[in-house]
Specification:
4 helices
């Protein structure tokens, strides 16, 4: 069952985020400060009108999460300025290849359209996420620049 994340899901969502990060960065440790930051972000985001956090639950256990952070930017001549950044996308290994994430993304897209969001974007180094997104019609764009401001 796909549903909105609830406050009582917070600890399970923190565990999923840490599991996702360990898969992406196996050499990184679970620094207590970073774990606190994850806990804070999740607790502030569940129920936030500008965050659409979907979870997949089976037999009372959350096995996947997909989050869309809605951004309200200045409108342009070709769009309305409302975008969503898709992040925190993760499925536990034993539930992969069942179509859960594609269903979550599709459901999120429907909700985002209803909220007047004109486009969704994400960045990922995960080959499976890149493959899934391409199958769902996402295209790779290279029209932006970034600068890392961390130490």
């Amino acid at each position: 069952m796909i549903r909105y994340a609830l406050e009582q899901d917070a600890q399970a969502l923190v565990k999923l985020r840490i599991a996702e990060q360990k898969e992406l960065h196996p050499q990184a440790g679970a620094d207590p400060g970073k774990v606190k930051a994850i806990e804070k972000w999740i607790s502030e985001s569940v129920g936030n009108v500008n965050v659409l956090m979907l979870v997949s639950e089976a037999e009372g256990k959350i096995g996947a999460i997909c989050t869309f952070v809605i951004e309200h930017n200045i409108p342009g001549l070709v769009d309305n300025g409302n975008y969503a950044y898709m992040c925190n996308v993760y499925t536990v290994p034993e539930q992969r290849k069942q179509g859960i994430m594609s269903d979550m993304i599709s459901q999120g897209e429907i909700e985002l359209k209803a909220r007047n969001v004109c486009a969704v974007y994400f960045d990922s180094v995960s080959p499976s996420m890149i493959s899934l997104s391409q199958k769902m019609g996402y295209v790779h764009r290279t029209s932006f620049y970034s600068k890392d401001l961390s130490d």
